[in-house]
Structure formats: C-alpha cells, structure tokens
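so i finally got all the pieces together for this one. its two components total, 468 residues if u count the protein bits. some of the lines might not be protein, just check the labels. i wanna see the whole assembly predicted at once instead of chain by chain like last time, that was a mess tbh
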Amino acid sequence: MPSTSPAVDVCGVSRTFGRRRAVDSVDLTLHAGECMALFGPNGAGKTTLMRVVAGLLRPTAGSVHVGGRSLRDDAAARSQVGLISHQSMLYRALTARENVEFAAKLYGVPDPKTAAMLALERMKILDRRETPVRALSRGLQQRVSIARAIVHDPRVVLLDEPYTGLDAAGGAALTEMLHLLRASGAALILVTHNVEEGLAVASHAVVMIAGRIVRRDTCASVDVQEYARDYKSLVIA
Amino acid sequence: MSELRAPGTFRAAWLLARKDLTIEFRTRTAFLSALVFAILALCIFYFAWDESIVPPPALAPGVLWVVLTFSALLGLQRSFGLEEHDRGIDALLVSPVSRESIYLGKAIGNLLFLSAVQAVTIPALALFYNLPVGQPLLIVSGVVLLAMIGIVAVGTLFSAMAVNTRLAELLLPMLSLPFFVPILMSAAQISQRVLAGRPLSEAGAYMKILISFDLVFIVACTLAFPFTLEE
C-alpha cells in the first residue's frame, strides 16, 4: 500500500543562532509531485530553513519529516533526498564524472558509472565529463552540482538558488529537469529570488520574510506579473 | 530507478578514503609539504648534532618522534579542509552514509597518507643517523604504525572540530598535542630501547600502553565525531 505521508512535513520549525531567530515557527507540507517556490529577500531565513529540512541543522523547535521519517536519524530517508546549494559541494581536483560517480556510490546506486553519465547528459555537460571541476566555469560547475544531486533519482529535491551562475542553456536544462522530476513524482522545494523563474515550475509559492511565512499561494490561481508586483511591495515594506 | 542500497560503514569509509587519496595524489600539496618539512627537520637536527657527545641511538628516537608528530599535523590539517572548500561536507552529511563512516574514511585516508610520508622519512632517518638496517628498523616501523593509528584517531577528530574556526592552524596542534603525549611517550620509549639493541620484551609495558591508547582513542573518537558536526 502506498504511503500517505506527505513528502515533506515541516511542523512548527524554529531555528535560532544566539539571540537571532533565523526561522520562526514555520509550517510547510508538500506532497509527491508538488513544487514549492520559496521567495524572500536576503536574510529572510530561506537557506537556514533548507538546511533544517535537509537535516544539516537541528531545529531549535518543531520537527521535519521526509516521507514520514526524520532525516537526521534515518539513512534510508536521506537516500531519498537531493540537495542543490549555491555552493557546488564538488571536489575541484576530481573530474565532473568522478564527482557524480562518487555521489552515486555513496547513495548505493546499482550502476554508478552509467547513472553518472546519464545525470551529466541530462544536464547537458557530458562532453566535459573528464574535465577537472576546477577547470570548469561557475555555470558548468553548477550543472555538475545538479547532476550530482539528482544522480540517485531523489524523491525530494531541495534547491537553494539553483539558477545562480547558469547561462540560458543551463537554466533551460534545469527547468526541463525540474519538470521531469515533478512528473516522476518527486517533491521539490525551490529557493529563488526570481519570481518568474520560480512560478514557471512551482505548484505552490511561499514568501518568507524575517524568518516567518507571510504569504502562501497556489500557482494555478496566480497571475505572474501581479504576483511579482505584490512580492516587490512586500519585500520593500 | 532500482532499489538503492547505501554502502555499509566500512565500504563507505573506504570510498571516502579513496576519494581523499585520489585528490592528494593529483594535487600532492599536503604530501610534499609534509615530506619537505620532515627532510628539512632531519637535516637541521643532523647539523646541530655532535656525535662525540650524543650517540646516534640516543638521539634518533627523539628526532624521529618530533619530525613524525609535526609532519602528521601538517597532513591532518588538510583532512577536513578538503571538505570545507566548496562545502563537500554538506553533500556527505545529506547522503545516507553514517557520520561514523565519514570519520573512519577520513582516518583511513590520513593513516595511508602519513604512512607514505613515513615510508620516506624512516629510511632517511636511518641514513642520517647511521642506524642499524634490518630487524630493529622494522620493529621501529611497526611502532611508528601503531603510534600513527592513535595520532590519526585523535587528529582526525580535532581536524573536524578546528576546520570551521578562524584559528584552525593554531587550534589543531593545541587540541591534539596533549592527547598525543601518552602515545608519543610510549612509542619513544620502545624505539629508544630497540635502536639501542635491547630486546623488545623490555618495552612490553610501553607496548601495552600504546595499544591500549590506540583502542581507547579509536572507540572514543568514533563515538564523539558525530557531535563535532553539529552547528
């Protein structure tokens, strides 16, 4: 019987650093095949929230469950997650292929070499597979980083500013990839500053300011231009 | 995609160690700096040494352990620095491998790296100080390996703790050296006796201390490591 647990369930999560409350009582629920765009100005707490959801930070209060399980204590739950951050998380002395293959082996992908090639092909960087990462441009490194994060076909993908540094072709490859992931039933959380980019792939949109969720929408009912105007006024206010 | 089967603790540790050694083999930065330091230190001790006052078997163990300790610190420094550069550590922590595997992988990588440095340093020491080649030097190499296990166990843990701090280069030796004392004391005593041509059985008590500290440090540091990764 298929699991009825939400793909991602964030319940009353807060995270403080000293006296500063970076994330303040956040609740989010995301089901398989949904994509949540998370907008917010710099310092809104988006990256902290992503790190809490990824299990990299322990919440000060509240709980996070992925597929009904806690990422921090459950290796099987972690194997369902892919993380893309604004830092590449790659090893510069290794080639693109070696980086992706290493990730595939860590996740226990049955044929890591083929999986790595496929992920690099999906991100349209197969021709540079034997180039050391340090010799790739920022945008190409980002493509390798995305290939690394999706090599194990994750059910939940956390994307923190994934479009940073990508050129038009890289951005299009990423958007296509996100649509494919959604169609295959993966749940996505996409942190971005670019409203148009976010709404193009998202099913839900959330605005976060000063650690709190201040607005939630379903993308189907949203006019992009109007939403962008409203978001701008929220951020400036 | 077919069912994922995350690697077990030792398989994951080996994957990590192999990755670290591949990176070191390609860049050779830590290996060369540790090796150059070791050879330079041997040269300095050699030129400052008056053979008519101190015989080689009395001086060589001291030189060996000073050189070994500080070249080990140079190697340990880079261990988690590799992960910090582009936050590779985040990718490891999000993956299904356990924190213990990460620690063991780093420790195995460090041990192999330091063994490579010592494979050059020990023959160089024998050459500089005219030490007896053969069984005594083999026994000393075994003692070095045992000491390295303890040093790497402690050093890998503190390397993970220090890497995020501004004073990582200073903090690692400050944290590690006090814990190295029981290992270095035992190892120096054993090597001194062996190089002086005395039987190994004379150093039996020190051997027990060395092995005991190795075991204690391996277990304690493996258990403590997951807490060093908490932000």
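Chain B touches chain A through 30 residues (CB under 8 Å).
The two ends of chain B are 34 Å apart (CA to CA).
anyway lmk what u think
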